[in-house]
Amino acid sequence: MNAGTAPAGLTDLSKYIYGATRLGHDGLAQSARVDMALRAMAAGIWFHVSHEYGNALEVLRTAFDADRARVPKMIFKIGFRTVAEVRETVLRDLDALAIEAMDIGQLCLVDGLAEDFSNGGASVDAILQLREEGLVRRFVLEVFPWSSAAALAAIDNGVADRTVDGFIFYLNPLQRFALNPLWHRLRQRGDAIVAMRTVAGNHVHALRDVPGAAWKEYLQQRAVDVAPVFDRAGVPDWSEFCVRFAHSFPEVRATVGSTARSDNFERFVEVANAPIEPLARETLAALEQLAEQWSDAFDRHAAPGSM
Ligand SMILES: NC(=O)c1ccc[n+]([C@@H]2O[C@H](COP(=O)([O-])OP(=O)(O)OC[C@H]3O[C@@H](n4cnc5c(N)ncnc54)[C@H](OP(=O)(O)O)[C@@H]3O)[C@@H](O)[C@H]2O)c1
Fold first, then answer.
1. What is the pLDDT of residues 248-295, one digit of tens each?
2. Is residue 4 part of a domain?
């Protein structure tokens, strides 16, 4: 499945991956964001990056230039509508960070390109060419509720096995963006999963209680259901609960979370560096039951980009 010496199945990822979104938030001083990047680099963990996150690449470039020995392994979002655009995003991001290759390219495919790829069309070889050229070492496939059927098709017709080392999607106590049929297939096959948005954007109590904390109404409603499960679980804090939730699934290799705060960052690293205990069986069962219901009742009807 993958070229070169990278181990199959994404087993080399750090259990917590630093998401670079907050590095691009201009509400924080640029120097503070560079310091945050340096702190995450010093922890020796993987990063998840994209040119879509404000000026995060510029912040990262400054941090990398200050300490080239600690440039992290990274997952990059690449895409979107044509193979030419995929190549362009790869070359542009490599240039922006002055690095030679992407450790992992996250295939964010939309419209006709998504369809062509999942049906095994000409785009498959064009994308694999990037691996042959050494520009992208491995791929993972991004999945949303509205692209779950296409991902399932890519598995069924063998494209996934030829191209990707795993699947990446929102997976946290409030969101599981692989719809039920795909989720069960991935688990049955034992596919490697990268879980995104560790804490679902905020503390579950804030998502439930603070107007505007949840960026969509459905998240506020889900927080009403999830908060009592968290409150009953006896886990010290939301960060630990969420890291343990993601790693309760043996297929999950990493959880990707963002923070601009050193205390939140240190907590993620502390929990992820210790042996990670899965959540108690009844806690996990309650959350899995909710995810199963949400998938059928809401997620599968969601329009692209709506959640
Ligand atoms: N399609 C995609 O590829 C895609 C989409 C979304 C996200 N992502 C990736 O996933 C990463 C994380 O996504 P995200 O930032 O949307 O979600 P997230 O990591 O769940 O949420 C980040 C937010 O949670 C706050 N936070 C962290 N720990 C907390 C805690 N214990 N209690 C309360 N708030 C806490 C952070 O605030 P502070 O800064 O104040 O700590 C930050 O505002 C992104 O950086 C990106 O790399 C990828």
1. 999 999 999 999 999 999 999 999 999 999 999 999 999 999 999 999
2. no
CATH number at residue 250: 3.20.20.100
In a domain, 266, yes or no: yes
Atom from ligand 1 closest to the CA of residue 47: 47
Residue 307 domain-assigned (yes or no): no
Residue 184: per-residue pLDDT = 98
Q: Which residues of 177-213 are buried (b: 16+ CB within 10 A; e: fewer)?
A: bbbbebbebbeeeebbbbbbbbbbbbbbeebbeeeeb
Question: How many A from CA of 187 to the centre of ligand 1?
Answer: 25
Domains: count for the chain: 1
| Tokens 């922006």 belong to residue | 96
> Residue 286 class from Cβ within 10 Å (0-12 exposed, 13-18 middle, 19+ buried)?
buried
| Residue among 196, 242, 269, 270 to mutate when testing ligand 1 (max atoms within 8 A of CB) | 196
User: Does 255 contact ligand 1 (Cβ within 6 A)?
Assistant: no
Residue nearest to atom 7 of ligand 1 (CA): 197
Query: Is 1 among the domain residues?
Result: no
Pairwise CA distance, residues 255 & 14, whole Å: 9
